[in-house]
Amino acid sequence: MKQLKLLFTAIILLFSAVSCEETDPYSYLKIQGTWLLQAVNDYPVDTDTRTVAVFSEKDACTVALMYDNNGSQKWQVNDGLSWNFHGTVLEISGMDANNNVFVQNNTFLSVDDNTLVFTVNGVESQAGGSTGSYNCKFSRVLADSRNYSGTWECLHADGVTNPGIRIRLDGNHAMSVFSLENGTWQQKLSAEYFTYNGFIAINYTDSDSGLPACGTWDYDMAASGNSVTWLWTKKSGETQNTMLFQKVNE
What we know:
By secondary structure, this protein is mainly beta. Helix content is about 10%, strand content about 60%. The protein is built from two helices and 18 strands. The chain has helices at about 1-20, 25-30; strands at about 35-40, 45, 50-55, 60-70, 70-85, 90-95, 100-110, 115-125, 135-140, 150-155, 160, 165-170, 175-180, 185-195, 200-205, 210-225, 225-235, 240-245. This is Lipocalin-like domain-containing protein.
């Protein structure tokens, strides 16, 4: 009888230990959505370092960030990833920009309506793993119903008034950039853009080097009467650049 009691006690302890590692359904549902990286180890990140992570139902995952390869830059959207959440383990896996299979192991810390925090413990990859531990804090990106399509004229760029720049967005990731020359707007380049309700990434070809390039900006939009303005801000260390656009009524 004593042995039977010990056996039942062991079973109860075993199931108690397993249940502690069960996935919290509240956290699992809260993690789902789009997130923008704000800070690493409690230090705000530069604009070019921002990362977008999308955790969808059925464990599908998308990660987007600026990828730099020997001076060639691109906003890379990797939508073929998977995520797995169990206990305190938040795992992201799939194939990276260089077609190497990887697994990123993270320790989940907290999530609510606005913030997701986890610790990156390391990455295992065919190209070689990485070690080290750092905390990442993300803010939730809410659904965005604003209309970015149309032509926008730059009113100010780092203190320069009316620099003679316009951009035109078609609503399908295509952007054209124009320069005012002898009273006529001349198209200077075509670009690809991605918006995340407060953050924009732009892929284009650098006119000087001929290499792929990427620009990233945080932004805010305001409307007053018939006027709509769009303020872009880029932070790099102690330096901050700004551009203010106004929508052109065409």
